[in-house]
Design brief:
Structural class: alpha/beta
Strand order of the largest sheet: 2-8-7-6-5-3-4
Order of helices and strands: HHEHHEHEHEEHEEHEEEHHHEEHEEEH
Mean pLDDT: 96
Distance between the termini: 58 Å
CATH topology of the largest domain: Aspartate Aminotransferase, domain 2
Radius of gyration: 21 Å
CATH class of the largest domain: Alpha Beta
Number of strands: 15
Low-confidence stretches: none
Bound molecules: pyridoxal-5'-phosphate
Shape: globular
Length: 408
């Protein structure tokens, strides 16, 4: 008899985005004349930049010629890409990370989920509330939790509420976690963490033999020079942190698929006898066994982001989205809403003025024909908030803001 992994049954049936899709489809079917503006799902809208497209094409041509054809690539990723990443994203910022520490993958979603495999089953996981749902859901799938309680929290996870009162930056938990997921700039709140705040976490991880799993998917949106782009800008982090980065939001790769994870040799976890062992060989083993790399043309396209021209083109796209975010912040504030984020991040986090998140979603959909994301979908502490995504076309942003202004 084939038994299922019952941990999957603990997950709530309606994942956030399918539920949004369902409500929007229903409304659209009943109101075919209404022009709906979608600012809900955090997916990019601008095309790949010319430098990336050119390199992508060249990669395909190479694959089509006997002299330059490539089969399986190096499992950790091609050296040309790992070198470009190490040099531009780290060494240029004075961070001592080498190409050897970098593992190229097909996405940070997969990596943040898969990373738990190399850690013991008894580890306690700390997760922010609200946050990107993947950390909690994959923890549940792995069997490390009990059921979901009436308050929306899974038994066995240490939740760290991020609220208006703490500026959406988690406080150190009372219970000691083994693995700590942090995400800055944050999805969904759009908040960033200062050096001092991150130093507090690194010091805590060092004192408690914990490991920080740092998701920096939105680092490219940081414009404030005081805000760190990498956890490794923090003293001591190289011993206790794994960092996840993705080209998805940085360079419009959500449909192209390329990301990377940084696992420094210094990061160690313990065996049953209390011996500290490096985790990098385990991640290497995991990837070489269960993953066969990202396609050559895609890695070649990703490397083009690091050329002079590529950097310039990508920066323009990021500035476009940040300008959207600025317009949204200003318009929503002027319309009487309290807004957070959107300055070093593509998300604006808005208080719903007394509405429950899903009620606000329905009101916005039916009265303004604008789609956003209910904050409660990211965790119980997101109730009463709403996420607007700056990944949209300018004219849609302007029209959506105009409609919301009339609404209030
Ligand atoms: C979009 C996003 C990612 C990127 O995932 P990919 O699988 O690389 O597309 C990672 N983390 C967060 C928080 C995100 O919002």
């Amino acid at each position: 008899m084939a038994l299922i992994n019952e941990n999957y049954l603990k997950l709530q049936a309606g994942y956030l985005f399918p539920e949004i899709g369902r409500r929007v489809r229903e409304f659209a079917a009943a109101n075919p004349d209404k022009k709906i503006i979608r600012m809900g799902i955090g997916d990019v809208t601008r095309p790949l930049v010319p430098s990336v497209v050119k390199a992508f094409h060249e990669g395909v041509e190479e694959m089509g010629s006997a002299a330059t054809f490539k089969g399986y690539g190096p499992e950790q990723g091609y050296e040309f890409l790992r070198e470009a990443i190490a040099k531009n994203d780290y060494q240029a910022r004075g961070i001592d990370i080498s190409a050897d520490d970098i593992f190229v993958s097909d996405g940070s979603k997969c990596d943040t989920g898969n990373i738990q495999e190399i850690f013991g089953h008894d580890n306690k996981i700390a997760i922010c509330d609200p946050v990107y749902p993947v950390y909690a859901d994959t923890t549940v799938m792995s069997g490390k939790t009990g059921v979901c309680q009436p308050n929306g929290y899974f038994e066995g996870i240490i939740y760290m509420p991020c609220t208006e009162a703490n500026g959406f930056i988690p406080e150190l938990p009372d219970e000691r976690p083994d693995l700590i997921f942090l995400c800055f700039p944050n999805n969904p709140t759009g908040t960033v963490a200062t050096k001092e705040e991150l130093q507090k976490w690194v010091d805590y991880a060092r004192a408690n033999n914990s490991i920080i799993l740092y998701d920096a998917a939105y680092e490219a949106f940081i414009v404030d020079p005081e805000i760190p782009h990498s956890i490794y800008e923090i003293e001591g982090a190289k011993d206790v942190a794994i960092e996840f980065r993705s080209f998805s939001k940085t360079a419009g790769f959500t449909g192209t698929r390329c990301a990377f994870t940084v696992v420094p040799s210094e990061v160690k976890a313990f065996d049953r006898n209390g011996n500290a062992l490096p985790v990098k060989p385990l991640w290497m083993r995991r990837q070489t066994t269960k993953f066969n790399g990202v396609s050559y043309p895609v890695q070649k396209a990703a490397a083009a982001i690091y050329t002079e021209q590529g950097k310039k083109e990508v920066k323009e796209v990021i500035e476009y989205y940040l300008e959207n975010a600025r317009i949204m912040r200003e318009s929503l504030s002027a319309a009487g809403y309290t807004v957070y984020g959107g300055e070093n991040a593509p998300y604006v986090w808005v208080k719903t003025n007394g509405y429950a998140s899903w009620d606000f979603f329905d009101k916005l959909l039916t009265e303004a024909n604008v789609v956003g994301t209910p904050g409660s979908g990211f965790g119980p502490a997101g109730e009463g908030y709403f996420r607007f995504s700056a990944f949209a076309d300018r004219e849609n942003v302007l029209e959506a803001m105009e409609r919301i202004k009339k609404l209030s």
